[in-house]
Amino acid sequence: MRDTSEFAIGYTSRHNSTLIIANNLCHLMKYKSLSVVLSMMLAGCGFQSTAKDWYAVSSEKNLGISGIVAIDRENFLVVHDNKKINEPRLSQLNWQEDLPPRLQKMAWCDAQKLPIDLEAITAIPEYNSAFLVLESRGQVTRIRVENNHCDVVAEFSLPNATTKSNMESLALFHNILVWAERGDDEKPAKMSWGEYDLQNNRITLLKENTMDFFAPYPNEHRRSISEIAIDQSGVLWVSAASDPGDNGVFQSALYQLGQFVDDKAGIHWNAYGDISIQSQYENVKVEGLTFVGDKLIMGSDDENLGSKIAVESK
Predict the structure, then answer these.
(1) DSSP code at position 61
(2) How far is CA 164 from CA 104, 129, 138, in A?
(3) Which of the residues 81, 158, 271, 298 has the least number of beta carbons within 10 Å of its own beta carbon?
(4) How far is residue 140 CA from its own chain's centroid?
(5) What domains sit in the chain, N to C, each tagged with a CATH number?
């Protein structure tokens, strides 16, 4: 059972997740395509979905959560995928017990050089107040955030980034940096990883450095990887999401793709052979994931419908 005692209790919005099973014929009949029905049935096998409380963060479109990272158990940094000069890029989010989430916009580090379409943020644990933020075209900016102020430390591009890249995820496990092209209805997401040189801000691709993933659900307007988070044991979680347009209806799911194993031979990737849905959500587009202990915090970018936050217990 989910324990929310360490997080906000006074919720303002609730959505129930839906488990689709074969004997729910009335529900399945609304789909026009048999292939869609079968895909939904298969996606629903092997997991149990329970009701989740989603807490409203903002009703403003330009304050959607496109990435989130924990500072401590109650405070988070959030990035926004905005592109215009007068729109926010970075915010602080406070989520305390018995209180609704509170979002405070921050000025970007360099007002003369605003990032375009920020999609992810991850912490650098070895350095206090240090973070990496990712633009969708594969540009990474290392920033330092202290006392509601940020500074740019370094900038670099991911090794396989192109002008056509559409990346929405970034995570750091020890010295392994992981990112992914999000994919669509026709092609899978492509996850990549490499060694991150923290001193020189360079990425070296490993011999094994990519994995394709085509999410079985959602099965329309699909982004097979909309975000990545890695837990303390190296298990890699991803969110998949549908984005039919600014008014939804949105759908999301969580998957475990594998584990980064740290042993005498170093860190290596172990892909799971059987990948099934861990949880499934309706009416939210999950684009932010971050761990606080064993709690997985999820943030949504629901476009015209604003943003929300929830906690998923492993």
Answers:
(1) G
(2) 32, 31, 10
(3) 271
(4) 16
(5) 13-313 (2.120.10)
**DSSP per-residue string spanning 7-38:** S----SEEE------TT-HHHHTT-S-HHHHH
Supply 137's token pair.
């075209």
**Backbone phi and psi for residue 288, each to the nearest 5 degrees, phi listed first:** -130, 130
Sequence length of the chain is 314
**Whole-number pLDDT of residue 314:** 60
CB neighbour class for 28 (10 Å; exposed up to 12, middle 13-18, buried from 19)? middle
> CA–CA separation, 313 vs 80, rounded Å?
25
Q: Which two tokens stand for residue 64?
A: 């959607």
* Pairing mode, strands 167-173 and 149-157: unpaired
Q: Among the residues of the chain, which ranges form H helices?
A: 25-28, 34-43
Long-range contacts at 81-90 (CB < 8 A, ≥ 24 apart):
81/117, 81/118, 81/119, 81/136, 81/301, 82/117, 82/118, 83/116, 83/117, 85/114, 87/62, 88/62, 88/63, 89/114, 89/115, 89/118, 90/118, 90/133, 90/145, 90/150
pLDDT at 52: 63
**29: Cα separation from own chain's centroid:** 32
Spatial CA neighbour of 52 closest among 15, 100, 20? 15
Of the candidates 93, 69, 91, the residue with the CA atom closest to the CA atom of residue 80: 91
Rounded CA-CA distance 152/290 in Å is: 22
Report, as ranges of residue numbers, the positions in the chain whose pLDDT lies below 50. 1-51
pLDDT, residue 126, reads 86
Classify 290 as helix, strand or coil: strand
Q: How far apart are the first and last CA of the chain?
A: 10
